[in-house]
Amino acid sequence: MTTKFDYDVLYIGGGHGSHDGAAPLAGTGVRVGVIESGLMGGTCTNRGCNAKIALDEAVKLTRESNRLGDILNHHQMTINWSRNMAHKQDIIDPLPAGLEQRLTSNGATIIRGHARFQDAHTVVVDGKQTVTADKIVIATGLKPHRLDIPGTDLAHDSTDFLNLQKLPARITIIGSGYISMEFATIANAAGAKVTILLHGDTVLRHFYQPYVKAVVEDLKQRGVTFVANANVQSFAKTGDHLEVAYGDHQQLATDWILDATGRIPNLDDLGLENVNVDYDRHGIQVNDHLQTTETNIYASGDVIKSTQPKLTPAATFESKYLMQLFSGETTAAIDFPVTPSVVFTSPRIAQAGMSVDDGKQQGLTISTNDLAHYWYYRIDKEPLAASTQIHDQDGHLVGVTEISDQAPEAINTLLPAIEFKFSPAQVNRLVGLFPTLGYAAWHRA
Ligand SMILES: Cc1cc2nc3c(=O)[nH]c(=O)nc-3n(C[C@H](O)[C@H](O)[C@H](O)COP(=O)(O)OP(=O)(O)OC[C@H]3O[C@@H](n4cnc5c(N)ncnc54)[C@H](O)[C@@H]3O)c2cc1C
Ligand SMILES: NC(=O)c1ccc[n+]([C@@H]2O[C@H](COP(=O)([O-])OP(=O)(O)OC[C@H]3O[C@@H](n4cnc5c(N)ncnc54)[C@H](O)[C@@H]3O)[C@@H](O)[C@H]2O)c1
């Protein structure tokens, strides 16, 4: 590439949409810069997946120990919130430094500060440092959507929840998507009284609804309240607590409000008016090479306007694709693989490939296994465990969804069968380890 610029490739943002590709790209000798205004690793590493799953481990353990009941001598475990938070912090604190080390040891330069486009090849960092590059990748991710209602500043976002040093007695969550359901699970298990105010009447709309209903019923039995069509109107502070006005003149007294109404593209003060990059409220428009309408500017990860799920593995796949494109390893368009998704409720719901509803519409074979009564799942007494598979006319597995504590591992196991279209004969040749979850999962492929 040219030496006319400071860098061959400059990334704005240091999340999975950039560093997974930027580090190996720098290792090929390409001059790489990464500008990050916060912590290296972005949302997933510092205030998303990793923090959440670290907090959730204790939830999983208490659930399992309570189920195993009188097999254990001290089975009524409870969660110590502050120690759980400290455990989470211990896990995530060292991560940014490790990612920085991976970048710099491959030869990349890290530039700290907020990047703003001056023109198609120039960004200004924190209003003072000018950095130029041949190619620039926008990987600025998403930020929380905030309700535009009176008192909205009294509500908190997912980052605030993941840093709560004391668990509030009453938590009200607005929205019923991923963050709402995962955080409701954690807060409820730790002893908070949780109320979820829904926009409509659907929870986790992208997941198989019979399994979602089972999780909702379970949470209700554990004391979580769901209010459908809540029509939240305002938040106010009254004395020592908060009031949520919703519905038809209804009021809900609470101690803490989580606005979990979705995430929107993070394009704050990026200077996009200075470049020819098309975007709207759903994100940055790219072609099948992740190239924006300004041909030397690309985008990667959550900030892209696309129907791909906004998940870490998808961002990683895109950043690795750009690495191959920029290093000359490929000129082909990006070819997205099957991307599974999971909601870390307790039990979890995971899925990959075609949805059950699409399978039904196409007249494919749908089969459901009741796993709760299968001996392997009875070992830890899982009361809610089932899986549904979709097979095409030739017996290929084309989609699967599972509800169980082990659902993510089961779906990961089956992923190659869907992605590489294993024939029934090929599946039969897979002799796995027994007794294991993976073996049990393959028997459903
Ligand atoms: C609470 C929560 C839980 C999640 N759990 C999961 C999960 O379990 N599994 C999963 O797969 N996904 C999960 N996700 C989604 C996952 O975090 C994202 O898909 C992933 O982080 C996207 O990576 P990214 O690089 O596109 O964006 P980000 O990780 O958001 O990184 C963008 C980076 O850009 C930086 N930045 C922004 N603007 C500028 C600027 N102008 N100049 C310099 N730097 C800038 C930001 O500081 C940030 O570090 C979760 C998300 C949240 C919020
Ligand atoms: N396990 C995971 O992989 C995981 C976990 C957490 C977050 N994430 C990622 O983060 C993204 C954001 O999560 P999220 O839960 O904020 O978004 P989401 O899109 O999953 O859910 C948003 C919820 O807010 C509701 N809503 C929207 N507008 C509203 C309004 N005006 N009033 C009331 N409710 C309203 C929606 O009906 C929906 O229930 C996810 O889409 C996903 O990409 C992934």
From TrEMBL:
Highest taxon listed in the record's lineage: Bacteria
Positions of transmembrane segments: none
Record-linked SUPFAM superfamilies: FAD/NAD(P)-binding domain (SSF51905), FAD/NAD-linked reductases, dimerisation (C-terminal) domain (SSF55424)
Residues annotated as binding NAD(+): 175-182, 262
Ranges for domain FAD/NAD(P)-binding: 7-316
Stored Pfam families: Pyr_redox_2, Pyr_redox_dim
Co-factor note (free text): Binds 1 FAD per subunit.
Official protein name in the record: NAD(P)/FAD-dependent oxidoreductase
Organism this protein belongs to: Levilactobacillus suantsaii
